[in-house]
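Q: What structure does this chain adopt?
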Amino acid sequence: MRKTAKQKAEKDFKVNILEKIDGLDDFQKLKLCVAEDDKIRLLKNEDKHPYYINNSDDWLLTQFANRYFLLNVDETEEFIQSVYLGDYGSLIFKEIDRLIKKIPKLTYEDFIAGVQCEYLETFEFYYNIEKEDYYEISKWQMNVLLDIVQYDVLNVIRDYQKYCKTIDNPINFITNELSILEEEVIETITDATALKQILSKLYIFKNNDISKYDNDLLLENYPLFFNDENNYRKLNPENLKEPLNNISNDVKNIISNELTLFYVLDTVLKWMKSIIKGKSLLEPFEYIDLKKKIDEVKGETENEYQKEIEELNDFCFNNEAITSEQKKEYLRAKFEDEIDAYNKIKDKRIFFFLRDENENLLLENLRFSYIINDSLDEVLDELKKAYRILNVSWEISSIFFELFDSKTMYYKKDSGSHLMIHSLMNDMVLDKDDYNELHSSMDNFFERLQNDSVPLDIHFVNHRNIYIRLFEKCISRLQEVLDNAEPSNKVLYIQTRLKELRQRELRFRTISERNEEFEDKEDKYPNLFKEFLSIEAEFIKETVQISPITFLPNQTKSISLVVEETDSFKTFVNQEKQDYILKILEDLAITKDGVYNLGDRSKGTIRGVIEALREEHIIPKLSLKKLCDMVANQINLVLKSKLDWSTTSDNYKKKAKQYIKDNPFH
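A:
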């Protein structure tokens, strides 16, 4: 199967790429390769079995065998197609990489001198420009675009306001102008002459010759009026020479050419809508000082988060009665709140712009959001939230480091154990969405790690939590698969995986004995997987001899199998045990003064403590949900659903058991 896919990929690469690019110049070769690569990327996204794409032979064999044995499906054709897409895409990538190395180099000086680069204007990623030069070129393109649009918008709106002072019913006039832009300028127009006729109805073109615009360029840039995309990569000193000269000469007519006109019309449209909604027509239209506005937002935010920082320091340094463990739990709970807030920020690039060295980039991007997208209020709100998160999270990290001399707030012993989840998931039966999330999370982790200015623990915790959630989800799916698998296949699968895990455990132990660096490390997730498989194997062993169950005959009286349970924390155990339970919760920093003190993501702590108390025979073996609900009600914690197993619950189960061992009941 692997060989068949490879041969098909090589054949199609020869026919679709090598034979077609023969005789073309390098630019046309790259253009053809990129177009074919886009087609393959689309097919990859649609493929139902991404786990067969671009993976090692061992990986492919394991997943194919898992699905064949446990799902009882033959995916030979799907396997060949998916592997083919990966192989074909890799061949195209190598050819693109070869062509990229031949692209002529472009510098910022070349760009300003008028050298036009078709690679930069055509491709999103494929050009030969040094990072510093690329940023300078992008900065020029964005700022010049904004200068032209701002210049035209101010003049156009002032012309409208001036004319409206001379007529009897200016609101009707603005309404008519708006109807042209909203009802006649529609997305389906494909004829430049028709478009020019419609635009010529607008007042702003009474004194501006619309026939001067090139038909092809006008239609090419027309979609900008309807979407949030931009074309500033196509902007250069040559094609913007005339508009820039007109600004220098203080020309009052519309100076925009085909590349910038639709940004102006879109902004004027938004202004007209604001007039119809009640904004004063004669109110002077001006652009605010953005740098001053940014400084104001930062100043307001600093005043607000300074109170939070004072509370953090007061708790950690000014109260000798608080133990080190309580400080750790407090700081981690506060940090988790910041992680939650960070994850709610829609556009994470704001954290890149908040780096000290990117102050100008922040200003430029806010200016773009202000002038082009008309979303300044939304962006400033995000800026305020991000600035607070940035400073509070760093303060928490700094305090933790000062108190405990640790650069990380989490997972010292098993800091990298979750990375094993990647290979463990392939030992199960994979799902398309979970597999794609697994891989995209790694890409996102490195992107955020490289670009953001927040503490690294935020990225590590987010990445770890995604992996753990996927592990738990895959275990649950595997349970369903095993329940429905053919018995002999299920036994073979379980025993094979257990053998592999035990061999791996032996190798890990050998390495740990030779290398002190691994001595205190935990092999957590392989152990959890092994425990899961061992439970399955034990169940099969214990039930293999059980005869089929026969149903009871009809009963004249119903048989109740429900154990009557108590409903209140105050009644399910005596007062002494109630006090003991509440003390555990307080000493483990789950509660403070008897009230739940952690975030929503830490509710699993309750399950962990309950499991430990139940296993140590301190509380009765009622249903886990009932016990969790009773304790939660006692400490003012709202549980909207059942508390499932999680790493948090597992960690606190261990902590609670250790606490019970150190502080036994009676």
